Amino acid sequence: RLSAVCVCVGLCTRSATVVLFATFTYLFILCESNHNNHYILICHVTALASLTEWGQYASLDHLISVYRHRRNSAS
């Protein structure tokens, strides 16, 4: 759950997306009775998202980096 919350708010997005992919896919594979095509889609989207710059814009990671850059350039 923590990785899903981190992905939602955009905090440590790359590592949180990898953890979300690994745990969601593992739980999906474990429970064969709960097979849904949307769950397969979530597995694929999180796998692809972990390879991209998922949290580059409109995320807490971006706001933190902008704040650090402004603080460093002001001093």
Summarize this structure as a short list of keywords or feature phrases.
0% strand, 75 residues, mainly alpha, single chain, 72% helix, 4 helices, elongated
Description:
The protein has 75 residues and is mainly α. The chain is built from 4 helices and no strands. The chain is elongated, with a radius of gyration of 16 Å. The relative contact order is 0.16.
Quick check: average pLDDT? Answer: 87
Shape: elongated
First and last CA, distance:
39 Å
Low-confidence stretches: none
* Portion in beta strands: under 5%
**Helicity range:** over 70%
Secondary-structure element order, as H and E?
HHHH
Largest sheet: none
Instruction: Give me the count of strands.
Output: 0
Structural class by secondary-structure content: mainly alpha
Radius of gyration: 16 Å
What count of helical segments does DSSP give? Answer: 4
Summarize the structure.
The protein is mainly alpha-helical. It contains four helices and no strands.
Write the layout of secondary structure elements.
Layout: H1 2-9, H2 13-30, H3 37-49, H4 60-74
